[in-house]
Every structure is written in C-alpha cells, then in structure tokens.
C-alpha cells in the first residue's frame, strides 16, 4: 500500500468518525499542509464546510456557530502562524464553555526545528485553554491505526461536550504528497472501531442535602435568586416558580435567558443595575442569602453590591464544575443541574419566612426604573440607550441578539425588559474582548434563525474581515452599529478626567466612514438619527436578504451625561418614595 492510500484512508476514517459522532460543520481556512483534511471534509456529504480566509475570523465564526447551535464545530487551518491566529477565539471558547474541535495541520517531525517554512512549535500551542490536546500519529492505514484515528475523533467530540463544554486541539503532522485519492473503494471505512459511547445524567444533590439547605435558609428573611449568563432557555420557568413560592426577587442578567419567554415574570428584577449604583440603596437592600445560577452578571453595580454583603450566605450553582466567584467571598458551591435543584427545593415544600416588605421593595424599585427608562425622550438625536431600547422593542420573536462588549452589553442590561418574545441573547463574555464580534455574529446567523448583532464602532473596525463571510455565503444578518467614534466605555471611567492623554490612549477615535466598508462587502447601509426612523429601518432589515448595517452616530460626552442623569433620576425617586 502506498503512502497516498495510507493518507487517504487515515484521514477519511477520522472525518467520517467526526460525522458519526455528530459533527455537522467545519470552518476551513485555506492552506497547503491542511490539504488532506480540507479536501476530505469537503468530500463528506454529512459535513458542511465553510471557507473563511482569515484564521482569526474563521475561529470566531466557528465560535458563534457553536454558541448558537450548542453543538461542536470544527475549525481547520494550516501550520505556522495560521494556528496562532486561532488563539483569541480559543481563549473565549474555553472561558465561555463553547465546544470547538481545533484541527491544526503541521510539518512532519523531521521538518520541525530545522528552519523549514511555516514550522513553529504547535505542541500544546494553546496551553491550558483547551480541555484536551493530542499530537496525532503519522498516517497509516492498518486496521490498528484506522481504529486509532476513529477513536481520537470520537474522543474529541466527547471531551468537547462532556461536563463544561470547551475546545479540544488535535495536531496533524502530514508528509507530502498531500492530495488524497478519493477514487479508492470503501473510502469512509467500515465504522467498526471502538467508538466512545457516553450517556450523561443530570447531577442531583442528595435529599439530605436539599433538606439541610432549606433548613439553613428557612429563617432567613431576605433572600435573592440571581441568574447570570447561561444558555438554558428553561431556567426561567424553574427559578421563577421557586421565587414565587419563597417570595423572593430574581435578579436576571440580560444573558441569563430569563428576561424573555412565556414564564411568569412577577418576581423578576431587570433594572437592578440602574439603582444599585447608589450606595445608600445598596445598603438599604442588604440581604441574608443569595443563590446564583450561571456566571457572574455583567453589572458592575451588582458586583459592588455583593462585595458589600460579605456577611450573607452565598451559594453558586454550577452544572458540573468550576469556580466563578470573583468576589472571593466565602461561598458554598452546589454542583447540580440547575432545573433539577429548583425542582428539589420546590418539592421540599417548606415555608421560608420572608420579610413581607422585601419583595415589595424590590418590585417597587424595579417599577420606578422601568417607568423612567421607558419614558426617556430626546428630540434632537438618538442617544445610545434610546437606540438600544428601540432595537429591543423590534427584535423578532424567536430570534437571537448577539451583543458586543463594552457599552453595548451594558445598555442591553439597562434597557432589556421582560418580554414574552423568545429572544436568545448571546455574547462573548468569557474573556470579554471586543475582537471577533462580526465573525461571531455571522457564524451564529448561518443557523437560519434571525440574528441581530449589536456592537460599537471599535468592535466593528476590529473585525471588518468578518463581513466577507456574510458576503460570500449571502448570510442574512442585521447589524446595529453604535458609532461614538472611539471607546465610549472609557468615558465612564476615572481615566476620562486625564484630559492630556485621554483621547490618544483611551478615546481612540478612528474617523472612518463605515458606509464604504459595508458597500465593499456587498451589504446594504442605512443610517438613523431619530427613534422612529431607526424603528422603521430595523423592521425593514428583517425583510431584506443578506447583510444589513444600520449606523447610529452618537457623542461620547453627551452619552455619559445622558446616562448619569437617567441613573440619578431613578435613584432619587427610589430614595424619596421607597426608602422614605
């Protein structure tokens, strides 16, 4: 048997096993050394290949697709710095628990560390940011090696999905020739290898621990449930039923999937970020215990609130494992399925002695906040908050909002109020970077569901390469671009007072006419300066095919004043009515 046949059967069995194990999508960046895998993926009828030229964009495209579908996505590149360009997306995937199958082609061992081109050290290139690394053997087509390669493919899918999902990395050394021979009989093999077969059950804490937890909380009069970023759309129903029985509020992050859906929202508090900014209000709302589901919420005011309540009992519920508690308070971690835990606590059927004014005060403050936020008007031009509020009002039912970091996600936190529409809110909050946002949104949009990407001008500039995929595959995507000509988030920070260096180091205006970039990538461009105008163009964009970019231009300084005036108005009314 010649080497070309060895190569073909080895790679074909690997790719087929990925398909058997549930892989449906691979994102390929062109290169020579990755030819065997790239061509074989393209040949397999059960796997859809997406060709993205820029490796950094490709990795974030795969990340967005995996986030949207909650299925593993493979990303494939050639050797050398191509693999290094995957790193930002892999870091994000690891921290946000997204399953990626990272496949890097490599030079064979005899061409490493001898000055060969495109040969860097790719062994454990991503360090601890992958759940598993494996250096693949050189291709052979013996029965033993075909079983081996299938085993590694199945294991890659399994490890990426088990427990907390995340990226895995397989490095493939290939010798030339690199072109497979697809004329071989029985190309995809017999699928008779020892594949991984795993049945995962729900984690459930023992009844004795449920009883112990309820007894511990039974006499505590001021409790909170907090829902941070997480992806389960059914959590809202479970936590609101529990909160209703116990008579306590639910602080729901915009990425918790709890603010939208058909579940009861009487106990849900969406406006806490606005009023917890005031120290007196935080002190007034001191709590006895807090149970948090999901990651740490976006709100910095919430972080201050928790830091100031060190004396309270803190519980963090994790589905599998992890330590996501940046306050470093003494915290009890409960490793259990979130919905199962809520059900167990409900079935305990124990009355929790809640302060009768506790929930009422929270709901009153939330009502004041929502009333003021919904009534803001500015005739001259749109503010950033008003633009986001308008978007949230017109998002289609059963669609996804992919939101950028910095000001974008914070305005969503402020203005995303409870709705019966099913809105899946996605964001790259693992590492909180601004890179790869367009590519992530485009990747999410290939699922076929309506996707709206909300981001600022620096995020847009940082990943304009990502627009090529939208053009190439004619992907339907609406982008709301908030352009304050720089890093608007820094205007809220102490650095803003350092006028000598602020603009050059933090404000960083780019002064780009983004209309030309949108036109270059074949998208439709619109601008809006009034609320009604934005409402109309957004509605129209969901009827258009392909890429639609709507730009709203704002002023950073005015934006800071507008937000702070709004927060002050909310806080003063709460202090004068609820806390009088």
UniProtKB/TrEMBL annotation:
Record domain Thiamine pyrophosphate enzyme TPP-binding: where: 437-552
Protein role: Catalyzes the thiamine diphosphate-dependent decarboxylation of 2-oxoglutarate and the subsequent addition of the resulting succinic semialdehyde-thiamine pyrophosphate anion to isochorismate to yield 2-succinyl-5-enolpyruvyl-6-hydroxy-3-cyclohexene-1-carboxylate (SEPHCHC).
Family matches, as InterPro entries: DHS-like_NAD/FAD-binding_dom, MenaQ_synth_MenD, MenD_middle, THDP-binding, Thiamin_PyroP_enz_TPP-bd_dom, TPP_enzyme_TPP-bd
Gene label: menD
Biological process according to GO: menaquinone biosynthetic process
Keywords: Magnesium, Manganese, Menaquinone biosynthesis, Metal-binding, Thiamine pyrophosphate, Transferase
SUPFAM superfamilies linked to this entry: DHS-like NAD/FAD-binding domain (SSF52467), Thiamin diphosphate-binding fold (THDP-binding) (SSF52518)
All residue ranges annotated as the Thiamine pyrophosphate enzyme N-terminal TPP-binding domain in the record: 14-124
Record has Transferase as a keyword: yes
Essential cofactor(s): Mg(2+); Mn(2+); thiamine diphosphate
EC identifiers of the protein: 2.2.1.9
Menaquinone biosynthesis protein MenD middle domain residues: 219-403
Pathway(s) served: Quinol/quinone metabolism; menaquinone biosynthesis; Quinol/quinone metabolism; 1,4-dihydroxy-2-naphthoate biosynthesis; 1,4-dihydroxy-2-naphthoate from chorismate: step 2/7
Keyword RNA-binding: no
Family to which the UniProt record says this protein belongs: Belongs to the TPP enzyme family. MenD subfamily.
Database matches in Pfam families: TPP_enzyme_C, TPP_enzyme_M_2, TPP_enzyme_N
Species this protein is from: Ornithinibacillus halophilus
Catalytic activity: isochorismate + 2-oxoglutarate + H(+) = 5-enolpyruvoyl-6-hydroxy-2-succinyl-cyclohex-3-ene-1-carboxylate + CO2
Cofactor, free-text remark: Binds 1 thiamine pyrophosphate per subunit.
UniProt protein name: 2-succinyl-5-enolpyruvyl-6-hydroxy-3-cyclohexene-1-carboxylate synthase
Subunit record text: Homodimer.
GO MF, one example: magnesium ion binding
């Amino acid at each position: 048997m010649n080497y070309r046949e060895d190569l073909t059967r080895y790679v074909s069995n690997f790719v087929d096993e990925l398909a058997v194990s549930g892989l449906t999508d691979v994102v390929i960046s062109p290169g020579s050394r990755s030819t065997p895998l790239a061509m074989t993926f393209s040949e397999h009828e059960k796997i859809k290949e997406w060709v993205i030229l820029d490796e950094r964009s490709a990795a974030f495209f795969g990340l967005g697709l995996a986030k949207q579908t909650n299925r593993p996505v493979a990303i494939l590149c050639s050797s050398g710095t191509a693999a290094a360009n995957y790193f930002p997306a892999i870091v994000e995937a690891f921290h946000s628990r997204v399953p990626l199958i990272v496949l890097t082609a490599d030079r064979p061992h005899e061409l490493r560390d001898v000055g060969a081109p495109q040969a860097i050290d790719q062994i454990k290139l991503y360090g601890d940011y992958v759940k598993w690394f494996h250096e693949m053997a050189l291709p052979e087509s013996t029965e033993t090696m075909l079983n081996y390669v299938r085993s590694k493919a199945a294991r890659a899918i399994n490890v990426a999905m088990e427990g907390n999902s995340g990226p895995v990395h397989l490095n493939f050394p290939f010798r030339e020739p690199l072109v497979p021979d697809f004329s071989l009989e029985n190309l995809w093999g017999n699928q008779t290898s020892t594949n991984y077969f795993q049945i995962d059950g729900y984690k459930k804490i023992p009844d004795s621990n449920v009883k112990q937890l309820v007894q511990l909380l039974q006499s505590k009069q001021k409790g909170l449930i907090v829902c941070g970023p997480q992806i389960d759309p059914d959590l809202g129903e479970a936590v609101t039923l529990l909160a209703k029985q116990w008579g306590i509020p639910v602080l729901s992050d915009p990425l918790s999937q709890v603010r939208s859906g058909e579940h009861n929202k009487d106990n849900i508090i969406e406006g806490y970020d606005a009023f917890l900014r005031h120290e007196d209000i935080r002190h007034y709302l001191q709590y006895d215990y807090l149970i948090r589901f999901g990651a740490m919420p976006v709100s910095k005011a919430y972080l201050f609130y928790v830091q100031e309540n060190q004396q309270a009992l803190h519980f963090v519920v994790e589905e599998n494992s992890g330590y996501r508690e940046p306050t470093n308070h003494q915290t009890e971690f409960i490793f259990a399925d979130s919905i199962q835990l809520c059900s167990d606590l409900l079935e305990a059927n124990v009355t929790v002695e809640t302060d009768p004014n506790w929930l009422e005060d929270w709901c009153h403050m939330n009502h004041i906040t929502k009333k003021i936020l919904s009534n803001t008007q500015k005739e001259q031009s749109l503010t950033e908050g008003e633009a986001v509020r308008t978007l949230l009002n017109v998002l289609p039912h059963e669609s996804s909002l992919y939101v950028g970091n910095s000001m974008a996600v914070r305005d969503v936190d402020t203005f995303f109020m409870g709705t019966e529409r099913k809105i899946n809110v996605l964001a790259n909050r693992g590492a909180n970077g601004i890179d790869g946002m367009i590519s992530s949104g485009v990747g999410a949009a290939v699922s076929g569901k309506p996707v709206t990407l909300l981001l600022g001008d620096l995020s847009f500039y940082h990943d304009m390469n990502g627009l090529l995929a939208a053009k190439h595959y004619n992907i339907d995507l609406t982008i709301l671009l908030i352009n304050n000509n720089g890093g608007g988030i820094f205007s809220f920070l102490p650095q803003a007072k350092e006028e000598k260096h602020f603009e050059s180091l933090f404000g960083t205006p780019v002064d780009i006419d983004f209309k030309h970039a949108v036109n270059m990538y074949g998208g439709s461009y619109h601008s809006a300066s009034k609320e009604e105008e934005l409402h109309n163009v957004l509605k129209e964009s969901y009827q258009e095919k392909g890429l639609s970019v709507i730009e709203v231009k704002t002023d950073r300084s005015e934006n800071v004043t507008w937000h702070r005036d709004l927060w002050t108005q909310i806080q003063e009314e709460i202090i004068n009515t609820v806390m009088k």
